[in-house]
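We were asked to recover a plausible sequence for a given structure. The inputs and outputs are reproduced exactly as logged, with field labels preserved.

PROBLEM: sequence recovery
POSITIONS: 195
GIVEN STRUCTURE:
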């Protein structure tokens, strides 16, 4: 079973802005280009889910425009980006250093800006993974966000119950906007259990 983890196209926000759960649209031209490139590599048949945030749904709509017979994706709020609470739409440089240090000191359970913790993100992403694995479709596509992609990669590397002991154990790499990575999912019949 393969899972295509697709990151939405770039937004028009300046570099350095925190925009996790904020419903920021993607650049329309970049979205159409990302859909063109994605359409060229995806298999003919797949199951798919999309984050409820507009920047992800735009890419899903652009892909559907290229494949008119493609059924609508399941809109899954579990695929939304980490909620940074009061940090949303701030420049990262404007987030108080003491708050960033507090997050670094308790990476798993600190709720940045009063939003969502990494543990909370992992819980909902693992729920989505469990659903994907139960679907039994060989190829699945998620149009989502960098944080979700990192959560999937962390889970596949460290296991379905693991939590990062610190920020150094969290995956640093995620596809650039409009890019993707394809990962193999374990066969649930072999006992890989997601909480």
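RECOVERED SEQUENCE:
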């Amino acid at each position: 079973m393969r899972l295509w983890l697709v990151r939405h196209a770039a937004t028009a926000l300046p570099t350095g802005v925190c925009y996790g759960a904020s419903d920021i649209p993607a650049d329309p031209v970049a979205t159409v280009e990302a859909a063109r490139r994605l359409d060229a590599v995806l298999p003919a048949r797949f199951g798919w889910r999309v984050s409820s945030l507009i920047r992800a749904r735009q890419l899903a709509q652009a892909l559907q425009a290229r494949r008119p017979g493609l059924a609508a994706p399941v809109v899954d709020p579990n695929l939304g980006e980490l909620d940074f609470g009061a940090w949303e739409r701030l420049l990262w440089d404007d987030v108080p250093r003491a708050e960033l240090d507090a997050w670094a000191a308790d990476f798993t359970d600190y709720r940045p800006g009063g939003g969502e913790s990494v543990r909370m993100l992992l819980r909902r992403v693992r729920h989505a993974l469990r659903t994907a694995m139960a679907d039994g479709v060989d190829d699945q596509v998620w149009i989502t966000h960098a944080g979700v992609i990192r959560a999937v990669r962390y889970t596949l590397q460290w296991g379905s119950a693991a939590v990062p002991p610190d920020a150094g154990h969290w995956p640093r790499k995620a596809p650039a906007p409009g890019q993707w990575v394809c990962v193999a999912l374990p066969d649930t019949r072999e006992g890989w259990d997601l909480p």
